[in-house]
Amino acid sequence: MTLLRIRCARADDLPAIAGLMADCGRPQVRPQLPTLPGEHALVVEAGEGGAVLGCLRLRAAIGLQQPRYWYHVGCVVHAARELQLFQRQRTLLLGNNHTGASELADIAWARSGVPLAEQGLILKLLVQATLLLMARRREAFASHLVVELPGLRDAAGQAPFWLGLGRQFCRRDPLLAREQFGDEWRAHAAALLPRQTIYASFLPPGAQEAIAQAAPSARVLQDVLEAAGMRYSHHISIDDGGPVLEADVDTLGTVTAGRLWSLVQRDAAGPGVPMLVAHGDAGNWHAVMAQATLHGGRLALLPDDLARLGAHSGEQVWAAPLRSEFDAMPAVGGHSAPDA
Fold first, then answer.
1. Under 8 Å between Cβ of 130 and 93
2. What SUPFAM superfamilies does the annotation carry (predicted)?
């Protein structure tokens, strides 16, 4: 697993991406390469030319051409001291609060037969490589980043949240609608949903319990995203009630620690700091995990890691430690690590 490589998706990856989507419970998705400005698709492969183990789509700004909708999960209190009444109610309000944000979408990864720890590593590298790409081209992305996690579904693929709320206003099956219209189906559905505040207590128990709950199979993804600095934003998806995680991009560790380095080859294998090192630009972005040291203010990599990266001494790369402490990086020749 240490030889994993992250790169931009190609046309010949689409069948493998479709297989990953099906493995993650989304067989209706028909993957395509990015067509919109600022959109990037990345994959994780098991070494150069190996099997595709994960995929992700990065969108620079959402909701600017077709509105995107979420429910905001709020709270109201009804209180009357003279009646000894104090009642707190969860509320749902339809809105477009994340319009213009950047988004991590279409995240899928190999699950069948893959240990949970390896799934976590695949997702960790995929997410951090994407954040490093954002750091590399910071001006191309929004100040805010969001990701929708899949919500609870039953064995038949039905979402209790949708059955309890959305289906009362829109009879179309979400899975079939997504297959027919793609992600735009939610804008069509939202046109039929109430704009007034909804009390969650009016929903069936199953729908209430599904609010902001990620599917069990997505918990490893949630753990990876939260470790990267993303948090539940009190917003949920309108179809399955899954939680929306968000973050200010400039507070994310990989973005703040990512920086430009000059490369140098080191010949002696020894202790180093695990780093994600990326080479190329948006159309030819690829990254690997490598054990790095510092040598004369430059990033020193072993020959095998340089070869996997497709880079040479003297070239410049973007890199960030897989842990945040730059000062833990061993220096060669008495040079200390620069400030991140």
1. no
2. Acyl-CoA N-acyltransferases (Nat)
Which string of b and e fits 68-91 if b means at least 16 CB within 10 Å?
A: bbbbbbeeeeeeeeeeeeeeeebe
Cβ neighbors of 64 (< 8 A, separation 6 or more) are 99, 100
Q: Are residues 120 and 139 in the same domain?
A: yes
| 158/18 same-domain check | yes
Alpha helices in the chain (DSSP H): 14-23, 116-136, 160-164, 174-181, 185-190, 205-210, 219-227, 253-257, 303-309
**Are 176 and 285 contained in the same domain?**
no
Name beta bridge partners: 105.
57
User: What percent of the chain stands above pLDDT 70?
Assistant: 94
| Tally of domains in the chain | 2
Select from 227, 251, 275 the last residue of a domain.
251
Same domain, 146 and 203: yes
For residue 35, count CB atoms less than 10 angstroms from its CB and return exposed for 0-12, middle for 13-18, buried for 19 or more: exposed
Plot region of 334 (φ>0 → left; ψ -120 to 50 → alpha; else → beta) = left
Phi and psi dihedrals of 296, rounded to 5? 60, 35
222 and 305: one domain? no
What's the rounded Cα separation, in Å, for the pair 4 and 2? Answer: 6
In this structure, is residue 339 part of a structural domain?
no
Summarised one tens digit per residue, pLDDT across range 10-65 is 999 999 999 999 988 887 778 899 988 889 999 999 987 799 999 999 999 999 99
Global pTM? Answer: 0.90
Q: Which residue range is the domain that position 36 belongs to?
A: 4-69+96-251
